Amino acid sequence: xxxxxxxxxxxxxxxxxxxxxxxxxxxxxxxxxxxxxxxxxxxxxxxxxxxxxxxxxxxxxxxxxxxxxxxxxxxxxxxxxxxxxxxxxxxxxxxxxxxxxxxxxxxxxxxxxxxxxxxxxxxxxxxxxxxxxxxxxxxxxxxxxxxxxxxxxxxxxxxxxxxxxxxxxxxxxxxxxxxxxxxxxxxxxxxxxxxxxxxxxxxxxxxxxxxxxxxxxxxxxxxxxxxxxxxxxxxxxxxxxxxxxxxxxxxxxxxxxxxxxxxxxxxxxxxxxxxxxxxxxxxxxxxxxxxxxxxxxxxxxxxxxxxx
Length: 308
Description:
Distance between the termini: 69 Å
Strand content: 5-15%
Low-confidence stretches: none
Helix content: 55-70%
Structural class: alpha+beta
Largest sheet: 7 strands, mixed
Radius of gyration: 34 Å
Number of helices: 7
Strand order of the largest sheet: 2-1-3-7-6-5-4
Mean pLDDT: 85
């Protein structure tokens, strides 16, 4: 699906492509690809690079065409090992052509369009739009990090209850998400540093770049803080599991020792040897009394030594 936007004095949709408009392509179809390659003449491999979910943040130049791939946060709607991940957003520029291509429907782009419409100023040029996309990406990283932190705080509240595999799996998934975030944010920062010298930057763009740098630094540092907190939580979970295992093994050992005492008495009097109690009418009760007495004595000694 593609949308044409007039970027002067706010964002307004257009019926068809015009020079200096913004072409927003979301989840491109074969018709969209045909339009971009045959009508606008963009290099065909640009779309292939953008479609690669593992493509890193980078800058490419080919015969006047500029390709900028920005990594943006994305939340998977279906159940997945990594609910929070990152995907590539492609920005293609040349002269009066400005195109963004994303193979996923994202809240980031919806929010970007909505905010620019409320702002009512549009973009001074395509370079201004590029850096505003960078700023929007940094802000959305912080939003997603807040959601991850909320999950971490919820997990902390369950540390005092029984820990199951689901808790550990969920924390492991959050660790994977933070790893993706940290890698993508570092890539975006490197790309931003390169674009300062690759694109025609004016004074207003320089101020915007400074804002983007601050937001990205905050996102990177926040990601590192949450990753450290999560590592600490995983270590705490491991310690609790080991402590619970030690408690279980201690309990089983004490039970085994308690059972050993009457078993020892019964084995002693059950041997096929003369022990003086064969003809006694109360021999069985004497053996039971000895078993109970020794067990009680062992229980008292265990309490004194704080074994139980």
